[in-house]
Amino acid sequence: MFAVEERSVLAAGAAEVWRAATTWEGIEGELRPLLRMTTPRGGPLDLAAVEPPARLGRSWLLLFGVLPIDADDIGILSIDDSGPAAGVRERAQMRALRRWHLDREVSPAGEGRCTVIDRVAFEPRVPGTGAVLLAVVRALFRHRHRRLRRRWGALQGR
């Protein structure tokens, strides 16, 4: 398995950032303009309405919003928003990846601040592609965190 971790301290409250990050619009806002994902099962996604464990269905990954590059069979293993920190654990398969694990945690970091941590682990399907896919996944999550910091204001991060 290959792994990537990105962390940002944002100038916004954890509850507000969590609410935005659990909507399809919030996810899309982090990915664009590099990537767009089609909505599984054709409807809007609101993680607050998902009862884990749940398979959400297939989402096409579109490079620059138009070029299909992979399909993500999204599964939500768990969602925990019962305490001051909130988190989601996604488990998926893609055409290029035998396993995809994404754990996101949003936790308070003082008055009006929060920390967002994304931990990604994956296993490529094709031997020898791990280093290239690691660079792509690392670049994608750095992009997502730049978008988070731009939207919410950054107190710490790359």
Structure report:
Strand 5 and strand 6 (97-108) form a beta hairpin. Helix content is 25%, strand content 45%. It contains three helices and eight strands; from the N terminus they run βααββββββαβ. An eight-stranded antiparallel sheet has the order 2-3-4-5-6-7-1-8. It is of the alpha+beta class and 158 residues long. It starts with a strand and ends with a strand. The radius of gyration is 15 Å and the shape is globular.
Topology:
Layout (H helix, E strand, L loop, with lengths): L1 E9 L3 H8 L2 H8 L3 E3 L16 E10 L3 E14 L5 E9 L2 E12 L5 E11 L5 H23 L1 E3 L2
Antiparallel strand pairs: 1-7, 1-8, 2-3, 3-4, 4-5, 5-6, 6-7
Q: What structural category arises from helix and sheet content?
A: alpha+beta
Order of helices and strands: EHHEEEEEEHE
Radius of gyration from CA coordinates: 15 Å
Helix content: 10-25%
Spatial arrangement of strands, main beta sheet: 2-3-4-5-6-7-1-8
How many strands appear in the DSSP assignment? 8
Low-confidence stretches: none
| Strand content range | 35-45%
Shape: globular
Q: Quick gist of this model?
A:
This protein starts with a strand and ends with a strand. Strand 3 and strand 4 form a beta hairpin.
Core attributes:
single chain; 158 residues; alpha+beta; 8-stranded antiparallel sheet; 45% strand
